[in-house]
Structure prediction request, 312 residues.
Amino acid sequence: MKIQRLALEASVPQGPAALTLGLFDGVHRGHQALLAAAVEGARRRSVKPVAVTFDPHPTVVVAPEGRPKLLMTLEQRLAAFEEAGVALAWVVPFSRALSELEPETFLGHLQRALAPVELHVGRAFRFGRHRSGGLDTLESWGARTGCAVQGHAFRAPDGGPLSSTRIREALDRGNAEEARDLLGHPYGLTGIVVEGERRGRHLGFPTANLAWEQEQLPARGVYVTEVRGAHLGHPRLGLTNIGEKPTFDGLKLTVETFLPDFQGDLYGGRLEVGFLHRLRPERRFEGMDALREQISRDVEAGRTWWREHGHP
Prediction:
């Protein structure tokens, strides 16, 4: 997949294309449908499939006080595009000047850069100055330029709304299952394993301390997780704690994972921790013995959940 990182008006023409356009934070089930539609449209019309996205998030520029915590890094977003079959990912730098463009001006840049013959967006997609452009704007423009525009309604498996906002709300409640259902896969944190305080080792449960890269964290507590990494060989059961370790009067938020069936050195390695189920919220214990006993119960509960949900 080719990656382009510049303003649409700064590029030489690279069309024709079947494309999808949006922020794609989390690349949830609705986003996946947009990408699949663009790829299929490109195949049908013998043109290239293109995903156009923006970085940074527009609220960073126009409303920083309301900026959401992002579910994915840009690198994760691009990897999801490539996995979906996109040939060109166009990352448009979002700026104050871009936010002030009238919708028709932005569409003129899009037409010159990519000459789209097919365009797929969510029905709620807004763009242009004061978010004045929408699906009706795109449909009128498409009728003039010969671009078939299709607006897609996003619906969750439970029939409710499907949005990045709803996924954040589920994670804020610690509802890993709901987040997974909306995303189509477990919510994941990625990062490098770094040196911690080694308290887990002293308790008999050595943990991998993750320097996570995402902005959105699940609610504090203990989770059953699926852990992937080059050092692990295959996906492993993990017990992941998100919190400040109140038993030790901790002041720093950490993401630490115990791997019951792995022995080895993970320092400096890269892990992906996928959140499957929350066992309990974070709590303070009277001392190390009480904490050690609770961790033992957590590990057994995690093993049971892992087996009962079809994991080897």
User: Anything to note?
Assistant: The longest helix spans residues 288-308. The chain has a mean pLDDT of 93. The chain has ten helices and twelve strands. Residues 172-308 form a domain with the Elongation Factor Tu (Ef-tu); domain 3 fold (CATH 2.40.30.30).
